[in-house]
Amino acid sequence: MRAEPPPTADQPEVPTPGWRTPRKAARPPRRAPLTVDAIVDAALEIVDTEGLDALSMRRVAQKLDTGAASLYAHVANKEDLIELVLDRVSGEMSFPEPDPEHWGDQMQDGMRQVRDIYARHRDLAKANFGRIPTTPHSLEAMEGMLAILKAGGLPDKVIAWSADLIALYATSAAYEMGLRELREEQDPGWTERYFGQIGAFFASLPKERFPVSVSMLDALTQGDDNDRFGFGLDVIMLGMQAYADRMRANGEA
Amino acid sequence: MRAEPPPTADQPEVPTPGWRTPRKAARPPRRAPLTVDAIVDAALEIVDTEGLDALSMRRVAQKLDTGAASLYAHVANKEDLIELVLDRVSGEMSFPEPDPEHWGDQMQDGMRQVRDIYARHRDLAKANFGRIPTTPHSLEAMEGMLAILKAGGLPDKVIAWSADLIALYATSAAYEMGLRELREEQDPGWTERYFGQIGAFFASLPKERFPVSVSMLDALTQGDDNDRFGFGLDVIMLGMQAYADRMRANGEA
DNA sequence: TTCCTATGACGAACGCTGTTCGTTCTACGA
DNA sequence: TCGTAGAACGAACAGCGTTCGTCATAGGAA
């Protein structure tokens, strides 16, 4: 492809036909170049305010005053972008130096932190299902968790599999909590209305068909997110101990 | 609106202008009427073969030889359709008559069943997050679960909150398992390739930065879905017992 | 300095999505 | 026989992820 020769006296400038696309059409001035960091920033901002389902390549591009296609020079695809966002959020997590005297409390605090961080990013936790940590910050988080569990002196199998279990629990709890908070934010009063309806619905259940459920209505509707999450953590950690004890009693460890 | 009068000798048939839409254009013959059941059938078929993300109103309609708009006469929206699908699947679950001697085994079998049923429907479990059971079959499933737990003689709070915890665990485990099975089906050999890469990746982790993780590689990669799910159930149920014991020791129950 | 090339920016397009609208057709009750 | 309720349904709207071809620029090579 050759460039247009400069006009001279012998060869005056050739007018461009109207139907030919102009070579230097009026274009907005070139903006500051995109960066992966800026893209992740914008994506996370959308997730934080409108939830994961509102995250689209076009919305991210819009926030950066560009077009969706431009993002693909920095990010392989949407899946890749989500992984980057998850890694960014994993970077918010931090675990203390393991203390064998207080590993139980450290673990509980750590998991509360994980849940809160995810929930602060609305329903982002949804994207964490089915993912094995491979990004830098998520690997660090895993390392921090395992280190604390290891300080508890449990068998390796119990530690490794429990880490899975606890992480899955924190992710699930964060997802459900984030989902509810998102709905409340997008539709103020939703929580009260929804749980009011649920309460009324359960109170109206026929006790002939659902005798046990009806007999337990109080217990079923008791407790807020924190109470219930704390209960789950207690149960899992007590269970880990009991499981390890059983292994030792059976001479497996 | 008046009907076109029949042509007579005095009043010959008036030709319809070409631009006027014909009154009786050639249309396919009216088909057997749609039903909610048929719609749920079609939707579940799509979920079973292609996963939840492939479920669209148009695909369902296509399967029923009609248009997407026709579905809205029987189903409020996609969310409603998914709830109907979930209820249908909940109907596959069944729990035995509670036996106080074997409530632990009954619970474990029941939860394995729940996980397997969800996983058989690919990643459908994803849609179960954040949902409180209100549909007939899901209420029955909850009743069956609670009845078995009640036979264990634990305090109501432990039963109710544990039911939540266990159901969440079964849902999460089913989701992750279903996700992997879906990927394997859509891309045969995926599982082996993926876990091979993961194994190689973990083996390549620098032990200076991730000392604990590296020291536990064996434990971290051990066990299949069933082993790990069984471990989680064991831990949770041992934890429930220990939690109840602790409550009793503190005079809380 | 001048040219070439690699790279990022970007508009347009493709084939999807959930949902709504207005129209048409059919079956049933009066 | 008529009127009406309700289902069926095509078209449309705004949005989606991604790809393509084109363009402008920056940096290295000559």
From TrEMBL, chains A, B:
<dbReference type="InterPro" id="IPR004111">
    <property type="entry name" value="Repressor_TetR_C"/>
</dbReference>
<dbReference type="InterPro" id="IPR003012">
    <property type="entry name" value="Tet_transcr_reg_TetR"/>
</dbReference>
<keyword id="KW-0804">Transcription</keyword>
<dbReference type="InterPro" id="IPR050109">
    <property type="entry name" value="HTH-type_TetR-like_transc_reg"/>
</dbReference>
<feature type="region of interest" description="Disordered">
    <location>
        <begin position="1"/>
        <end position="31"/>
    </location>
</feature>
<dbReference type="InterPro" id="IPR001647">
    <property type="entry name" value="HTH_TetR"/>
</dbReference>
<feature type="compositionally biased region" description="Basic residues">
    <location>
        <begin position="21"/>
        <end position="30"/>
    </location>
</feature>
<keyword id="KW-0238">DNA-binding</keyword>
<dbReference type="InterPro" id="IPR009057">
    <property type="entry name" value="Homeodomain-like_sf"/>
</dbReference>
<feature type="domain" description="HTH tetR-type">
    <location>
        <begin position="33"/>
        <end position="93"/>
    </location>
</feature>
<feature type="DNA-binding region" description="H-T-H motif">
    <location>
        <begin position="56"/>
        <end position="75"/>
    </location>
</feature>
<dbReference type="InterPro" id="IPR036271">
    <property type="entry name" value="Tet_transcr_reg_TetR-rel_C_sf"/>
</dbReference>
<dbReference type="Pfam" id="PF00440">
    <property type="entry name" value="TetR_N"/>
</dbReference>
<protein>
    <submittedName>
        <fullName>TetR family transcriptional regulator ActII</fullName>
    </submittedName>
</protein>
<keyword id="KW-0678">Repressor</keyword>
<dbReference type="Pfam" id="PF02909">
    <property type="entry name" value="TetR_C_1"/>
</dbReference>
<keyword id="KW-0805">Transcription regulation</keyword>
